[in-house]
Write a structure and sequence with these properties.
The protein is an alpha+beta fold and 166 residues long. The chain has five helices and five strands, in the order βααβββαβαα.
Length: 166
Amino acid sequence: MNIRKANTQDVPTLLKLIHELAIYEREPDAVKTTEDDLLRDGFGDNPLFQCLVGEIDGKVEGLALYFFTWSTWEGRPTLYLEDLFVRESTRGKGLGLTLFKNLAKIAVEKKCQRFEWSVLDWNEPARSFYHQLGANHKEGWLPYRLEGEPLQKVANSIETHQALVV
C-alpha cells in the first residue's frame, strides 16, 4: 500500500474513480467533471483542490480530494474533505483508513483547527467508519447549497454599483 500526492498522469484514473463514486452514491449521471477540469483546477498555477491517491500493488485504488477553508472564529484553516473513495474491489484492506489518517496528519501539519466533511445520511458504512475514529456529526448546523439557476439568479441580481471590482 502506498499513499502519494496525485499528479497529472493520474487525472484519467481520478475521473474514473469520481464516476465510480457517483455510482456508489446513487447518482451515476451526475458527474460533469472532465479531465480538463481536473487539470485546470487541481494542477495549475493556483490549484483549488489537492488530492491524495492510494495505491495497492502499484495501482491507484482510491482517492482523497480536499481543499482548505478558513475559520473566522478560530483564526485557523480548516481541511475540508470533498471526497474519500476506495474502489469496492479493494475495500476492507485499510486503504480508506490510511488515506484518512494522512489527511489528519496534513491538517495537523497545516495547523488546521478543524477537519470537516459531509456524509450522505443513508451511508451507514461511512458514518460508522467515521464514528469509530472519534468524529461526530455536528448538531445544529445544516448544510446549504446554492447552485444552477438559483446561483445565477442571485449573482445576476447585484447592481453595477454594488459589484466587486476584480
